[in-house]
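Researcher: Here's a chain I'd like modeled. Treat it as a single chain, no partners, no ligands.
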Amino acid sequence: MLGPLYWFSHDERYAQEFADEVTDFVLSYPPPEKYTSDAPGPWRQLTAAAPLNGTWLDAYNYFLPSGSFTPQAHAVMLKGFIEKARFAVRNPNAVNRYMIQLAGIYNVGAYFPELREARDLREFAVQAMEHAVDDEFYPDSISKELCPGYHGGSRGAINRIIDSAALMGYETPQKLFDGVKATYDVYPLLATPLWGLPRFGDTWSAGDIQKVFAAIEGRYDDPVYTWFATNREQGAPPEFTSTRMPWAGFYVMRSSWEPEALYLCMDAGPMGRDHWHEDFNNFECYAYGEPLISEVGIYSYTQSKWNQYFRASHAHNTVICDGYSQKRGGTGPFEVNAPRENDWHSDGVFDIAWGIYDGRWSAFDDYRGKSPTDLVATHRRDICFVKDSYWIICDRLASAGEHLWSQLFHFMPDRAVIAPNDAPAGTDDPGRANIRIIQIDAVSAQIITGREEEPPQGWYSAKQGEIEPAAMLSYEQTATDTARYDTILLPLPPGVEAEISFERLPVTDADGNSVSADDVCALRIVTQAGTDYFINDLRQSEIGPANGIVKRAGPVVTDCRAAVIRLDAEGTVIGASAVGATTLTLDGKALR
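Model: Modeled as a single isolated chain. Structure tokens:
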């Protein structure tokens, strides 16, 4: 605050205070040769380098004209710049923090060319950042942290070097200029209808994609970038709607590029190099201009009951077992060296993706997965988007013995959530878009809001260190060895009531033997628009390879991995698709 106060008032008292403070700071905290975990605050790897990208340069320029910023104070502050840059060179961090260090090192070499080591600092930073561009991002274009919010920090550090070079008259680092373009491609892939990002991991806010592209308008000749930058007025939208990111394990099911679009993003990938949560098979859902099923925040980076709650499976739209959270933190995988395969199908009739968590579970506050536990359980989740109407979630759960399973859905604090005994649960806000969560089997919904006992549940964190109650729905069932949930997510425009009926179709194999609903989910779903048939063979994980197992479900016969058939209100087939199939018939008639 001293800088702006001085800039607008020219009151030398502010300048004198700054000179005193910066002198005391630099002389009182000499840099250690090597970073240690108990290093004083000024010599943490990130906190030492981050000011070189903003606050220290701003302050230096605010007070440069002042007589109170004496040559002696000036020299001390330059000493501080040099010490910070050298410390960053000696003590590299990781992920976005490393890239911020490199940008800070470059800035010292660029803004103070009179320093003997200025050129060495610039060259070191550029070469190291070139390697980081190759190493820190997947071919999907996203940072290997797999945290959409922190992706912008990595991208911003690259841009900082490019911008500083241009500002100070140095040659543009061409490899960085070319390499940073790919980091922008992640935004159209993940963009929500409100032009934010899914808040997976430590993503503090959804952000504003329009501002991201407006900041580089004209830099690249890309009509999609222009379309986002100009708020749909120029350029062209992406050619795709639904899409997959097989390295990240993100699957986006989207009806259109309009603000009212239906949108769901599922996370079935590795944890990421940093900023991870225990949220495998988690998702966010939007429709009709509203977030409907949401992420609920981060709280802080300081280990505490609340920090660990918001990282645990309990605070995500997934499943917990016996009150235990997934516990990948002790084992990963944090990073992968190959993309997922046979993980996705998308066409004009339906999208489908799958993920399997088969690992340890333990208490929500076992942050690093180090507490002993005997619980090993499997959560298999398929999500299908029946375009452009609703989603179907198939959860298959397994663990030896009797267990209490809880399927969780979270909502923003301003949503009214209902769970009537005789109708589906969901949100119930007049004049707003709503969602109904429809369980095919009889599983009752429990609304939990602001429960404080351990494990806490039903909370939202908007900012650092803040919490407030937010309703969640928990569908609980006790089962032995295996359990299942087949769930329809039905989004509703404002003022529209749910008009839907459904039945589970019995399934038989080619010999007429009964097939369990645990193995094949077969549904008939009726809405005002017509009748849909959904077949999902959960005996096969992969999507794409031939299934080869004939099954009959009501009037449908197929050997698919998954299929959707859509009829209008008059019973005419208006869409049919199958993946992993050689045959698909309805009432004995072959469908294409």
